[in-house]
Every structure is written in C-alpha cells, then in structure tokens.
Predict the structure of LacI family transcriptional regulator.
Amino acid sequence: MSAPTARPGRRPTIKEVAASAGVSTAAVSQAFNHKGRLSEETRRRILDTAVRLGWSPNAPAAALRSSRTRTLALVVRRPTDVLGADPHFSELITGMEAELAPRGYGLLLHLVAGVHEENAVYERFAAEGRVDGAVLTDARTDDTRPALLARLGLPAVMLGAPDRTGPVPSVGLGHQDAGVTEAVRHLIGLGHRRIAYVAGPAELQHTRLRRAGFESALRAAGLRPFAVLHTDFSQGAAVAATEALVDAADRPTAIVYANDSMAVCGMGTAQRRGLGVPADLSVVGYDNLPLGRWLHPRLTTVDQRVQQVGAAAARLLLARCGEDVAEEVLEGRPRLVARESSGPAPR
Amino acid sequence: MSAPTARPGRRPTIKEVAASAGVSTAAVSQAFNHKGRLSEETRRRILDTAVRLGWSPNAPAAALRSSRTRTLALVVRRPTDVLGADPHFSELITGMEAELAPRGYGLLLHLVAGVHEENAVYERFAAEGRVDGAVLTDARTDDTRPALLARLGLPAVMLGAPDRTGPVPSVGLGHQDAGVTEAVRHLIGLGHRRIAYVAGPAELQHTRLRRAGFESALRAAGLRPFAVLHTDFSQGAAVAATEALVDAADRPTAIVYANDSMAVCGMGTAQRRGLGVPADLSVVGYDNLPLGRWLHPRLTTVDQRVQQVGAAAARLLLARCGEDVAEEVLEGRPRLVARESSGPAPR
C-alpha cells in the first residue's frame, strides 16, 4: 500500500498509523505510552509515521479513554430548579454518593433543557473522555439514549423498571405501579370513594405507569378517578391543583400525589382552607422522603427506595466500568407506608 | 550539558525534554500536537528526545490542562446523606446550575469524609486536570484549603462572608449574623423572653457567627439564651433537641433553628406534643427553602438567598476560569421573612 500523508480537515486514526507503520494499534499506543516491549527502532518508526500522518495521541479523548476518570455522570433533563423543587433527585444523588464517595468517585451533574442538549452532552463526554459512565433518568417512550450510548461505547445504566435485555440495563424496583395500587386500596379500605390523583408530567414513563395503576385499582373496586391532574412536579402546581380539587362542589375525600414534596404542599393548602388532615381529607405522597416522618400529621407515602435504587444503579455502573463491585439485586416493589395523613373517609 | 536518559521511578518533565532537545517547552507541545511551525527535523529531534527520556504528553493531566473541562467542582465535607437531610445544598446546587447549565458546564460533586480526603481530591483534580475550578463550602477557622488551591493553581471561590483579600475570594451575603439578630428582635418584639437556639455543628464558621448574633441580640435586650443546642444538622437531632426543649420544666416560648429542615421537624414535633404553633411555641427557621411557604402554618425564616449566592459563586468562578461572565455583586444581608409560625408569646 502507498504511504499516506497527513490530509487536512480530517483526523487520521490510530488504525491508519498502525497500518502504515506495519504494527498493531496496541503497538502504536505502547510507542507513545512508553510501555510494552517495542524495540527502539520500531518505536521510532511508529513515532515517525504518526508525525507524518499528523496523528497524535495526546488529545484528551485518547488520553483519558485509557485511564479511569473516577467520575460518573448524571444528566437530568429538567429545569435548573428541579433539585430545589423536588427532593427526589437529592435522594437519588444521596444513594449514588453512598457508593461513590467511599471509592473516591465523583458525580458529574449536568442539567439540560432538551433531548438534543442531553445527547450532545453524551457525545462530548465520549469524545473528551470526561466520565467512565452515565446514569440515565426519566426513561421515556421511544428513548433514543440507549442506542446513542451503545454507539459511543459509554457504559450506562437507566433508572426504571428492571430490564437487562437492551444495551443499557435498567435498574429499579419491579412492579412500579404497585405502590399507587396499594395506596388506592388503602384509601378504598378506609371508605374513600372520591379519590383524586395529582400526577407528574404526562410524557414521563413512570407517570403513565402510575396513572394506569391508579385507574385500574379504582376500576377493580367499581370506581372512577375523581380527577387526574398533571403537573410539572412544582410546588406551585401542587398548590394550584389542590385548591382546584378542594374547592370543587363535591370535593374529593382523598388525594394521592406523585411525590412527597407536592403532598406536603397539598396538606398545607388543605389545612389552610380549614380542612383537617386526615379528618376531612386524606393525603398520600410518593417517595418516602425523610421529612415526611416528622411532619404533623406524619405523611402516608409510597416507599420506592430512591436511595437504594440510586445505590444499586451506581454499583451496577461501577461494575460495568471495571470496578470490582458485587452487583446488588434490588428486591421488592414500591410499598405503601401508612402513617397519619390518611384516615377514615369523612361521613 | 550531558544528555539525560530515562530514569526509572521518576516522571520526567516537559522542561527536561525541552532543555535536552534545545527548544522551548512550547515547541515540545507543538511537536506532539502537530501545531506551530516546527521544521520536520526539529519535530523529529524533539520526539526522539521525548522517547529517550521516557516523557510522553498523553497523560490526562497534560492533555487536559491545555483545554477547558467545562466542569466546576463542589466538594462537600459532610456525610453522604447530607443532600437528603439538608435541602440547603440542593438550593446551592440549583443556584449554581442556573449559571452552569446554560453554558454547557457540568458540576462535579464530591462528598468527602474529612479534611485529608478533601485535600486529596483537590490534589487529584489538579494533577489530572479534571475541573476548571472549585467552589469551597463550610469555611472553617484556620482553613487550609485556600493555600492549597493557590499552590495547585486551581481557581476557586469560597462560600462565606464576602472577602476578596485572600488567594481564594469569598462570596456570600455580608453581615451573616444579621438574620439571626433580626429573628431574635422579632421574637422579643412579640413578647418572647425564653428563646432557645438549635444550632449546627460547633466547628463551622457560620455556626459561630450566628450563635454570636443570637446571644448578642438577646444580651442587648437584657436577656440570656434559654438554651443553645448544637446538632449535626440532621432531622433526628432536630427532633431530639426540640423534645428536650419542650419537655423542659419552664419550656421556651420560641425556638430558632439553624436551617428550615430542622425547623419543619421541630414544628411537627411540637405539634405532636399538643403545642400550637405559634399559639404555644413560635418557630423560626433559616434558609427560606421553597417548602416553608406552603406549610401550615407558613414558616417564618431567614432568607440568606442560597440560590443567588450559589449563582454568584458560579459566576465569579467562571470568570476566574476565563469565561466571559460579568461579575454579579451580591447586595444586602440575610433578612427575616416573617410568616405564620411566629406569633405573640403565650401569656
């Protein structure tokens, strides 16, 4: 073959260097890393070839791909105030940190506005070798991220219903609708018939799963939802939804919220309207955040073990990044934690 | 000078390569980067020299130091559950992300257990070129971090009382004791005389500042603290402290907490003991977290504008990292936000 020379406008590849020098790509790496058992003559020939082709191994990508960054990424496609507004992500990060911090790993957090921005971040991570792997959140219908990350060769795990079949394994509790189902049965058992649901954004997979669980649990008892209101998870939206519900002519006697933060806002809003919780209105949250235990009344909620899921995702990702970490199998399903904010339906 | 050769056990420096090849260090970089206007002969001599000395430019450190990582670090010396337990850090991160996310920057979060671990993280960041700069939290007496970061050449800003004199500028609201002082005056104005303080860890600078503000505001009115109880900021500690206070023979009529999370726990604990808030006990928090607005009663708190401080710290650090960011001057001081959880002292 003829010896190629540097062509402007196109980065040469290590394969071309290897082919031109008549060695393996590993030998090219060794020549630059000063490793392996290359003769001085071979090493020099490889370096000369690399110089002639304009290939250099010292781009951050090449350099970093060969070494661990001890950094995992968490890219969250939410408004920048999501951490302040929704403690769910704090819990998730707490769970991940429990595995990362003792191993000296850092967590690289990126908040992005949309799908294109999120994909661009992964492209950059891969190109620049910034992270060893990524945890994906908010699984969506027709999610394009697993294919992208597989193509980029970036280890990843997804948070969601457990699934090991795709290129990106999914980590989470099974039966994701089980918590809402149990909450509805709990309320029906307490005599409630007018039960409303303050949900998250309609486009999220878990919103759809839980809404389906909510509706089918009611249907099984011959009931229909009093109302299902979608929100952006913000506290303001939770307050507005609660006001709309409790001001309704034939108001609900119980409201289930898609997260604890919204449930706490809803509880305060109902109390401010003069409604006793749970005497006049039962309130059920979702996430089992620490704060719910200390409120008065203590918050009835669904424990989906966010911290444990975060820890399990981190462990699986660490293992896929080559760390010697035993994989932890997450047992169980979301469970209702019945406390004081739910009680018998008012007569 | 005699031509040195590779010595085992010690990494050669780019300076040694340059000296041995009779060129500048910039020329050495150019030889490997295929940039600049080196003759082929010079380039080859430099590469040969580098090979002989065992120097290679493709260590992540060298590669990354020459390019921006678009990553800022936040190292927090707290237990791994701090994010879940104390929304303060979520607010801080939210404020930083408001500046970082639109610019495509990520935030590298490291939770560390102690001072040695924290310093080791900065050493590693600098050695491996992982971040462009770092935001330091929890300023301490005799803080060794500014000197370390200056030595490492890593841009940094500290969160704390505004101070531009040291190697690491400090960003925050001035008069950090002003919020607690205002809270105490507010309570005294409402007729309270038995006022307790549930503080943070004694070793933190802001704990000492605020405690001093608390005590001197009482002293100015001829009063002494009912009690000052230190905690680790955890919710469990807040509950225990509140129980101890309200079970005291001559219990306080008002409690000031060092953060909102503890205040919410304290409020619930008092209510559970049958005390009305604020009829029997006034409660004042600190941080003005979003949730406090929606509780019933709405939480009286001190607004220290955590998000704005986080944003200002991020902006200053971005500017110090070479980004074209106008510095934002933080105006004002912490301010009391009087809501419903504080009221006239019971007779």
In short: Confidence is low (pLDDT under 50) at residues 1-9, 58-66 of chain B. Chain B touches chain A through 72 residues (CB under 8 Å). The longest strand of chain B covers residues 71-76.
